[in-house]
Every structure is written in structure tokens, then in C-alpha cells.
Specification:
The chain is of the alpha/beta class. The protein has two domains: about 30 residues; about 100 residues, 3-Layer(aba) Sandwich (Oxidized Rhodanese, domain 1). About 50% of the residues lie in helices and about 10% in strands. The protein contains seven helices and five strands. It has a five-stranded parallel beta sheet with strand order 1-5-4-2-3. Strand 4, helix 6 and strand 5 form a beta-alpha-beta unit. The radius of gyration is 18 Å and the shape is elongated.
């Protein structure tokens, strides 16, 4: 007990960081597993995975992953039927940095999609990895 009193700040910091790790783990479960740009590339090439870009239209036209399907997060609920034909395939969801795509992954899981993956770092990490981006 004396140890905790003498090291209250360190004990509090350890409890806080442990709580943050648990929160991230819990949040990731509902959102879908994260995949790196290289893992996503392998999934696209080997499993014919579908990329769904949930950024806003202005962001999408500025550059996106080739052959990605554009469904802004704000329209995802009403446009879910467009993705029904891909329920058996892996879906890789991307946005600018990975935050919006995390929300989209959670929505897709609730809608019955089982193979949902969040592109870690979003289109930014894709670009930094030197992978192709198109404006077509």
C-alpha cells in the first residue's frame, strides 16, 4: 500500500494507458480488422477484394484507389443494397486517415458483411506506400 501512495502518479498512468489499450481493442472488434496497404494489395490481387471509399466526393475526385467503389459515409445506410452482391467477398474500406472507414466497417458488420477490413491509415498510408492512385 505504501508503494502505491509513493508512486500514485505512475500507478494512475499505468491504469490510464491500460484502459486506452482495452478501449482500442474493443473499438476495433466492431469496426473490422485493420489491414496495411500491402496486405490490402494482396487481398485485392489474390481474393478479388472490393475497395469501398467512404470519403466525400471532393476528396474522392482528388485521387482514389483504382477500381474502388465510392459510397460516402453519409450515404452508406441508403446505398447498402449496392454492396449486397459482394457479401461473400472481402471488403476493404478506406477514407482519408482510417477514422471514417472504421465507422463504415462497423455499419457493414451490423448489416451482415463478415469479411470487412479497415485500411489502416487510409488513402494517406496507401499513397505513402507508393501504391497507385487514380483520378479517373
Amino acid at each position: 500500500m505504501d508503494f502505491l501512495k509513493d508512486n500514485l502518479m505512475w500507478a494512475g498512468l499505468a491504469a490510464f494507458s491500460g484502459g486506452m489499450l482495452l478501449w482500442q481493442t474493443w473499438q476495433a472488434r466492431g469496426a473490422g480488422a485493420g489491414v496495411s496497404p500491402m496486405q490490402a494489395t494482396l487481398m485485392i490481387n489474390r481474393e478479388d477484394a472490393v475497395v469501398v471509399d467512404v470519403r466525400e466526393p471532393a476528396e474522392y475526385v482528388g485521387g482514389h484507389i483504382p477500381n474502388s467503389r465510392h459510397i460516402p459515409l453519409s450515404q452508406l445506410d441508403k446505398r447498402l443494397p449496392e454492396l449486397d452482391k459482394f457479401k461473400a467477398r472481402s471488403l476493404i474500406v478506406s477514407c482519408a486517415s482510417g477514422n471514417r472507414s472504421s465507422s463504415a466497417c462497423a455499419k457493414l458488420r451490423r448489416a451482415g458483411f463478415e469479411k470487412v477490413y479497415n485500411l489502416s491509415g487510409g488513402i494517406s498510408s496507401w499513397d505513402q506506400a507508393g501504391l497507385p492512385i487514380t483520378k479517373k
